[in-house]
Structures are given as C-alpha cells and as structure tokens.
Amino acid sequence: MARYIFVTGGVVSSLGKGLSSASLAYLLKSQGYKVRIRKMDPYLNVDPGTMSPFQHGEVFVTNDGAETDLDLGHYERFTNIAAKKSDNITTGKIYSDIIKKERKGKYLGKTVQVIPHVTDRIREFIKGDITNEDFVICEIGGTVGDIESLPFVEAIRQFSNEVGRGRSLFIHLTFVPFLKSSDEIKTKPTQHSVKELRSLGIQPDIIICRSQKNIPLDQRKKISLFCNVSIENVIETVDVRTIYEAPISFYNEKLDKQVLKYFRLKPRKKVNLLPWKKITKTVLNTKKTVNIAIIGKYVNLKDAYKSLDEALIHGGIRNNIKVNLVRIESDKLKTNQINKVLKDVSGILIPGGFGKRGTEGKISAITYARKNKVPFLGICFGMQMAVIEFAKNILKIKNAGSSELDKKCYPIIGLINEWNKNGRLIKGTNKELGGTMRLGLYEAKLRHNSLIEKIYNSKSIFERHRHRYEVNNNLKSRFENKGMIFSGMSPDGKLPEIVEIKNHPWFIGVQYHPEFKSRPLSPHPLFSSFIKAAKIY
Ligand code: GLN
To answer: Using 50, 70 and 90 to split pLDDT, how confident is the model at 353?
Structure first.
C-alpha cells in the first residue's frame, strides 16, 4: 500500500523543494522501495506549455507527451524514473476539468465549490494512476500562505485524514537566514511559516531548514520546541557545492532514515551513494574546460534551458572536462561580429525556440560553424535553422524559410497537418496553441553508416518531441546531393528527424529534444559525443 509524503515550502520560494524531493526519492529508491514523485502547481495555466520561459523557466516534456513543470526534470534526472502526464497538475487543469464536468450536468444540480469539488479533484490526482508504489512524494508548488495554494494545502490535510497519519507524512522546507551584522542564525521566519501551516490544519512531521551555515544545536532545539517537531526531525540543508552532492548531503542529515522511521520501515537494501560521490568528485576536481556557445532567446534566465544546461554538463562529466556555457543572446548577435564573438568557443549549440526574433543571429552562427568546421548541435528550432541556412547558402534557395516565421517564404520548414502515431492519425494545428504540438516520445530510424548511428550505436531510437513544424521532406534529394543528409527519419519515412553534414567533423541537427533524456549518472550519447568533438576541436 502506498505511503504519501507531502512537501510544502515556506518563507521564500526557490529553496530547492524540487531538489530535496528528488534527492529523497533517490534515497528511498536506492534502498529498495518503489517511488513515484509528482508536482502540484497552483497557477491558472492548464499546463506550462503556453508560458514563456521568462515566466516559468523551461517546459519539461514527458515520454507520454505532457508539457510539465521543470521540477519533473529534476525528478527524472535524480531518480531515473520516467515521469508521466499523471504526475503534474495545475489549478488551471483542475478548474478546466471541473467546469467541463459542470457543463455536462455531471454534478446533478449541486452547487460546485472549492470544498469539496476542487479539493476532491486534487485528492483524485494524488492517488490516481498508482499501482504498487511504496511511496508517492507530492510536492506543492509555491509557498504556504499564498492565496493560490490554499486549496492544495486543504486537500492534503483532508487526504491525510482519509488515509490516516500512519500512511501520510508532511515535510516542510523553510529558510533559516544568517544575519551577518549580528553573526546570528534566525529561526523566527521558520516559526512563523510553521504557525501558518498549522493554522491550516497541518502539523509538519519533518522540517528541512535551508541555511547558508550549519545550524547550531541550540537553534535546532528552538525550532523543535516552537514548531512541535522532534529534534531528529529538524533537518538542515546547507548549500551544496554542486547539486549532485544533494543526495549525499540529505543522507548524511538522515532525511531518508527519519522518513523510514516515521513509517516504521527498514531499508530493504543498502543505499548506494557511490555514483553521486564519483561525479561530485569529477565536477569539483576537473580543471580543464571547454567553451560551448548556447545561442538562444532566453539565455539570460537561469532556468530557461535547464535540461539542456544539465545535459551539456553531463556530457562534460563523461569526457572529464568542465563545460563552460557561453550564453549568447541571439538578437544581439550581429553578423559582422560573429567571428569575434565565437572565436574562443569549441562547440556551438542552438536550442529549441519559437518565433522570428533572433533568427538572423542564429543563421549567421550556423554559417560560421559550417564553414569553420566547429562542432555544431541544432536542437528542434536549431535544426530547422540549420536546414534553412543550408538551403539558402548551399542550395541557393534565396527565400528559403519556415512558414512559422514568414508566410511568404519558400517553406523549407512547414506545418504538417497530419502524422502517424501508432497507426493513428493525429491532427496538428496552430489555431489553438495549448497542447497541440507533436509531443512526447517518437521513434526515428537511423541511416546505416551515418555519424548519428555511430553515436547511438543503434538503428532505432526513441526521443521526446515538442514542435509544430517539420522539415519539408520533398527536398531530401536536393539536400543530400549537396552533402546534408537526412540520417534519421520517422519510421514511415515521411518526417526528417536528424540531419548531418557529410564533410564536416560534427554537424548534427535533431528535430527532437535529447536533453530531456540525459541523466547525470547516464549522460546522453549525443551530448557526450558533442563535447568529445568540442574537446578535440
Ligand atoms: N517553433 C518550432 C516548431 O514549432 C520549433 C519548436 C522547438 O524548438 N521546440 O516546430
């Protein structure tokens, strides 16, 4: 029978609830338990798919095609458990489900209300799609005390009452500031945050205190006393040197031990922290660096390309080299400055993107990479730009473009309205933007003797997609005659998935997003190979 662990946050946001939840999930999984980890987001968008990365960071895509919160990326990277559509919900989705049901008259004349209807729907989410999991960890987005998160807090209170305290555990993550001027650690914000939580009917069982300094015993005792939590359950988390150290740090702080103790369970096997220790050591000790340029629209926001940044770092770990990410804002990249700006980089990456802004800079950077034989990786929009660049400059199709950006162009990249998935026809549309793209895992067949086949060491791959436009397959032979080969295709041979340039040491464009499948403990082959090529450039 599943046990439920609810993780809330207090005092301030961005304390690392996702990382704490993911680390706990790893520790429990490593001790032989089956774990599921999910996230509830209190905003009104149905999913983060329509939100700008400036607002909410990256949109993470699951195998089954859900556009989800980037925390699900942390979960996957730390636990290697593939997240599903059923692992992320938002207030917007809950209300849209409820209103649909109401319009169909399914509430049989009742007044539809936050309690019980919204809270019931949240409770349904918490226990939905669970089979033989031992633990379900549910993170609640936002901070306790926000108006938006109230129904979620109320729902987990009800849920705990339903399944019983023996099967539910509340973890509250707070901030314990250090005041330099008085050289003191302050517990008051934690006390207030827990007071707020208790006023909503929830007594936390474990408090995780995020702090810049170790919390002295006296202060821990104070938190224990005022917040009504036993001293062993006041757990500190001091800033780690690299995120890969987080599972080790939580283990040392006995978070997993206290969780198991609460549920009266014992480890089924010994925890394995060796891989984390190994990569922490690599990350902290590697001196040699390689500069990789990421040219995109959202480079100024730390989390906008989270999985991508991570995947590049993983590639570095595999090659024993530190990847220095050189973030370049595409709309500021002027063609006449390209040589200067890119002079010191050994690899160029153009990530996914939408819309016209900054495309000129991207195209010029691709020309530079192609001519100077700099290792190049184009992802999704980046691949589409590489194909357009080739069409313009090598095939001499002057008005080559994408119909996403220019309705009057020669559509080298166009909207495909239908494609095959499991024999089923799925309609693509740009009339409504939410959830209508080609999303999730699709197969690609790899060309024999191509670079991509060597990299994956396989004839068939499955990767995650998130795009609406496709490379126009009608021009395949023209491209191939001039040296850009379509080395990965959809199984029906209609959709180009991968392009590469023959007389270039490493120039690859992929229509999918390989970054979503890279893990620190098992780096993605495409990123490992890209960094290897950059290392010898
Ligand atoms: N805008 C492009 C499309 O919809 C690429 C999307 C992406 O890079 N994720 O096809």
So the answer is: very high
